[in-house]
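User: I'm curious what two different proteins look like when written out as structure tokens. Can you demonstrate?

Assistant: Sure. I'll show them one after the other, since each token string lines up with its own sequence. Here's the first protein:
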Amino acid sequence: MKEKVVVGMSGGVDSSVAACLLKEQGYEVIGVTMQIWQEEPKDLSGQASGCCGLSAVEDARRVAWTLGIPYYVMNFRREFKEAVMDYFTEEYLRGRTPNPCIACNRYVKWEALLSRAIGIGADYIATGHYARILRLMNGRYAVQSSVTAEKDQTYALYNLTQEQLRRTLMPVGDYTKDEIRQIAADRGLAVAKKKDSMEICFIPDNDYAGFIERTAGETPGEGNFVDQDGNILGRHKGITHYTVGQRKGLNLAMGHPVFVTEIRPEKNEVVIGENEDVFSDSLVCTKVNWQAIEGLSDGERSVRAKIRYSHPGAPCMISALPDGRVSCRFETPQRAVTPGQAVVFYENDYVIGGGTIQ
């Protein structure tokens, strides 16, 4: 009997080819688009409708028809609002910089979708992420880097659990982007040349502060730019407009480039410093999820750590702290270690674990 897999289809070329490859490998494939938008006007264009909007539904449905697989739209609006949108707003109001894609992957694309997939008798779920699933000698599962470093998405998948990984297929991780587009073209898929979506799906205009002001009801207003000693340098527009390491948009006449080094929500202050003040050789993370190992039972471990999606990774030593937290000490100082972002630990080409920078 064929194993059944539910493929999360965003309407893009990657998830479309994932469905195609799995069908060719002999799986019984069901396509599903996750409806996450809270409200969406009927005339929203493809450019502004994000990865799971109305145009995504039409593109995914067209691909499913071409492949000859069943296709459904499932409503995940409540899960998405609670796990992603509310979290995003709350973190910015706390002076932190969240990563909504990581939250969406763990709690919506996997936890919620997997639950529904199992409910309809599926054995697996699959996505179009550029990553692979590795089962190690110790029996544990980990996310492994894709064959193409340029598109690798393992950073955003560090938070997946062992059960989620055991039931996940990621066929796209074995190919480069160019190869994926060629496969789509060869199979006659209409999305072969569709552009990738780069913005946060629920903020297509990239105006984070505007989104927070519309959804939070009440946000901190203007406050003071200060230096490390608390001396007032000027006025800022509100803490939700800034993130650690930011240089542009400060509108401070300092005579040379300056940077955000800290956000203090309790005082409604944004701390300004020099370039060297943005570098740090250590961090502490919380809400740690382990993949390749069960934890740091042996005290310390030498790993490579990424502190943001675009970070190349840097050698560091990690060690266990009380309450499940982890300390990370880099060999060389790293730029803009940002509270709220994820730090992800790698060994060879797979994920050891990761957590939220505190």
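Here's a second, unrelated protein for contrast:
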Amino acid sequence: MTPSLAQPTYTSGTQLLGLGVHRPSVIVDNEQICQWIDSSDEWIQQRTGIKTRHRAAEDVSIIDMAQDAAAEALAQAGVEASQLGSVIVSTVTHPYATPSAATELAHRLGATPAAAYDISAACAGYCYGIAQADAFVRSGLAEYVLVVGVEKLSDFIDNHERTISFLLGDGAGAAVIGPSETPGISPSVLGSNGEKGSAITMNASMLSFRDALGEARESGDASALLDDETTYWPTLRQDGQTVFRWAVWEMAKVAQRALDGAGISAADLAGFVPHQANIRIIDELVKQLKLPDSVVVGRDIVDAGNTSAASIPLAMHRMVQENPELSGGLVLQIGFGAGLVYGAQVVRLP
């Protein structure tokens, strides 16, 4: 007779136990941005809502930022790094294909031998990480999971490019997920639409940079490469109108699916934390979802800019700090961006 396989003990619910962030000390305002592009503080604020964005110093890595955010989240959760069963880092700006940022972060925190890996899902990456952490804890694969969204987008921008670069900031946000007697994380809604992948992309690849460098070496003349390195070094680009329309109309449907999956209505929410892509997208989503005035909306973009995978935990952390009475309330979070990818779920605040 074929023996049966053992299964882990399943947990009925999971919850967010702690949040942490790292906000870089360098602040870049719109006046500085306008040194590089033909624009104005008024135009940038009207079109995006952004007044300032944080940028990390040259010697600060995404792992440095992630470590700070993780330390705060662990302390708030009352969980030791050695108790973590998994460390998940969502980022598209780690400069190494391998080893992952997560393995080094786990080592620095003292979480070894926790499972550790990176997610490349851009602005939806944090929501992807929460979905996976929820599944890990409920299935018994891990008791506690650390999820970090972190980006150093300033490494991959051309300051003179005006479709996306002036929007972007750096930072890190982290959450610790653990077991709960009652569900604190709803079923997640995840998806993608690769047909629209070219709406947010890069102007070049590392392969093109390598080829250009090789040609320069062969010719003995690196002046062209040095004079116009942004032609060869990968930097971000976007088709703003395509992204705007997709985010407003399609993401409102995804957000509603997340509410339906959680078995609640918009009136049950204490807060709404969408990806901080553009203040106009945020405001349109609020209208589409018919959120009541009682729902606190995360608008961290005004001071932090668009930080991709870090934007939701950064905005949520700020929401809790500024509105401590929301503790224990339900928040709808939704991420969307390059890929195009999206993810959403309802979570209960620590």
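A detail about the second structure: The chain is about 35% helix and 25% strand.
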